[in-house]
Structures are given as C-alpha cells and as structure tokens.
Write a structure and sequence with these properties.
Blueprint: H1 2-5, H2 7-11, H3 15-23, H4 33-43, H5 48-63, H6 70-85, E1 100-105, H7 112-125, E2 130-133, H8 140-153, E3 156-158, H9 166-180, E4 184-187, H10 196-213, E5 220-226, H11 231-243, E6 248-252, H12 262-270, E7 274-278, E8 286-288, H13 291-299
Parallel strand pairs: 1-4, 1-5, 2-3, 2-4, 5-6, 6-7
Antiparallel strand pairs: 7-8
The protein binds guanosine-5'-diphosphate.
Membrane topology: Peripheral membrane protein
Protein name: Signal recognition particle receptor FtsY
Catalytic activity: GTP + H2O = GDP + phosphate + H(+)
C-alpha cells in the first residue's frame, strides 16, 4: 500500500519528517512553535498562502488554550493537512464511459509518459483493455518511450508519422478503442512548444478534436506535476487550469524530495484533487492518492 511505498519519502526527511522532528520528545509547547512550523512549511514549498491558512488555525487554537501540549499541536496540524488534502473526488481514475478517454498533460520531464505507462500497467492488471495514444508527436523520443511501455504492458499504441497532427493521432486512438471495445484511452500530449500560449492553444485544440471523436471526451484531464519543482509546480497548475478543464493531479517524484509540501499548496490554492502520486521510476511506483492514508504514511 501507500504506507510501504512512501517509506522512502519518510526516510528522505520529507517535510512531514521535518515537522515531526520539531515535536519529537517535547511535551511542553515551545513559545516559538508557530515560527518553527512556519519555517518548515515555507522551506517545504507549501506556499505562503497555504502556510498562513494552516498557521492561522494553530494560532487561534493556541489562543483559545485548546492545545494543551505539543501532541495536541501536532494532531491539529495533521487534521488540517488531511482536511486540505480531501478536496474533490480524490484518488483513482473514475471509469465513467466506454471507452473512458484520459488526456494527460504537463510540461516536459515531469513524468507524463512514465505515468501513462504505470497507469496502463495497473489497468491491465485489473483486466481492462487500454489503448495508448502517442500525442506528443513533436518528440520522436516520447513516441518511442510510449511504444516501449505499450510492448511491456501489452497494449496497443496508436501513433502517427513524424510531425503528425497530435489531434489526428488521438482521434484515431479513440476510434480504435471504440472499434475494439477497449475500456480506456490514455493520451499523451506535448509538453513544450515555442511559447506557452502556443502550447495551451494546441492542447485546447486537441481536446476539441477528442470531443469530435467521442462525445464527452476527454472524460478526465490529468495534469502531471513534478514534486521536485516546488513552487514552479504551483505556477504550472495555474497556467494549465486556465487553458483546460483539469480534473485531477498526478504528483510525481515524491520519492527523493523534501519539498513534497507542495501537495498541500496545490490542493488548498487550486482546489484540484490529487488522483495519484509517483514514488519512483518503476511500473509499480504509482499509488492512488488517499489523503488520510497519505498523511499517516508520512508520519510513520
Ligand atoms: P515526460 O516528458 O513528462 O513524459 O516525462 P517522462 O515520463 O519522460 O519522465 C521524465 C523522467 O522522470 C524519467 O527519467 C522518469 O523515469 C522519471 N520519473 C517519472 N516519474 C517518476 C517518479 O515518480 N519518481 C522518480 N524518481 N522519477 C520519475
């Protein structure tokens, strides 16, 4: 489960670990506790707004004498974190239609293609048929990488010729899924064009084309964000949200970062549910996000 998968995150002194260290072995509340928590939250990339939100709650509880000892402060912090992380529908991929079409977006290098491979692996293991659409037609390497995943997982990969129209490739993939009765289409997309405006226009166009192939598609638009990008991930969320109806987040590379606090910022400031977290490069290193379990797993 998530607990086992996140061992690395805990061991790598993730931000929950640093918070925990603040409270370890102390019964009496340190008069500077709020400042200490603030420092951990800010340096873990929780973001200024969300940090203030959390601290306000702690401050007012302290002033009402509701928190008798450090254990209580700690409990309160964990509860607030859980509440923030419970936005939206939460973990997993709702399969709403046959086929359910999932558009996967994000800037280059965040882990889009890897996430698609991991998701395909899970879906296949659950007995679903998956079609992969190589919609990042601007990068031959991305198409190649998706192909490798397709072979490994044992699912169809629809690709176009070099420089093919990405909308057309994904259209074909949806058509293929309809013809063969497949359950899910996972569509990779470009993560970089000449300008941000270009990229967003291109992605909107691709989404419209998907809708022409199948009414209601894309059913899910997953934004992949790299936890090690910290506050940049927050900016990417704002940018993509403006251009596309993002339905959920996949937060990758939570292994090996002390900045995992960005997950709180994303939930609090963007109101987007985290569907999955990536905790490594292997096929099995993707976990459905479950807020309570996540917080508990981080705290060990
Ligand atoms: P894309 O450009 O968004 O498609 O990104 P890729 O899927 O090519 O991934 C970029 C790099 O990040 C690759 O080396 C992946 O193996 C790595 N990667 C993806 N997800 C994770 C993760 O959860 N943890 C770690 N440590 N690496 C990851």
């Amino acid at each position: 489960g998530l607990r086992k998968g996140l061992t690395k995150v805990r061991e790598s002194e993730g931000f929950f670990g640093r918070l925990k260290a603040l409270f370890a072995g102390k019964k009496e509340i340190d008069p500077n506790v709020v400042e200490q928590i603030e420092e951990v939250l800010l340096t873990s990339d929780v973001g200024v707004k969300t940090t203030e939100l959390l601290l306000d709650e702690i401050r007012s509880a302290l002033s009402r004498n509701e928190l008798a000892d450090t254990d209580k402060v700690w409990d309160a912090l964990r509860e607030h974190a859980k509440r923030i992380l419970r936005v939206g529908a939460g973990g997993g991929l709702p399969l709403k239609a046959q086929p359910t079409v999932v558009m996967v977006v994000g800037v280059n290098g965040v882990g889009k293609t890897t996430t698609i491979g991991k998701l395909a692996t899970q879906l296949k293991a659950e007995g679903r048929t998956v079609v992969l659409a190589a919609g990042d037609t601007f990068r031959a390497a991305a198409v190649q990488q998706l192909n490798v995943w397709g072979k490994r997982v044992g699912c169809e990969v629809v690709r176009g010729k070099d420089g093919a129209n990405p909308g057309a490739v994904i259209f074909d993939a949806i058509q293929k899924a309809k013809d063969t009765g497949a359950d899910v289409v996972l569509a990779d997309t470009a993560g970089r064009l000449h300008t941000k405006t270009n990229l967003m226009e291109e992605l909107s166009r691709v989404a419209r084309t998907m809708n022409k192939a199948l009414e209601g598609a894309p059913h899910e638009t997953l934004l992949v964000l790299d936890a090690t990008n910290g506050q940049n991930a927050m900016q990417q969320a704002a940018l993509f949200k403006e251009a596309l109806p993002i339905t959920g987040i996949v937060l990758t590379k939570l292994d090996g970062t002390a900045k995992g606090g960005v997950i709180l910022g994303i939930c609090a400031e963007h109101g987007l549910p985290v569907r999955y977290v990536g905790i490594g490069e292997r096929a099995e290193d993707l976990r459905e996000f479950e807020p309570d379990e996540f917080v508990e797993a981080m705290l060990g």
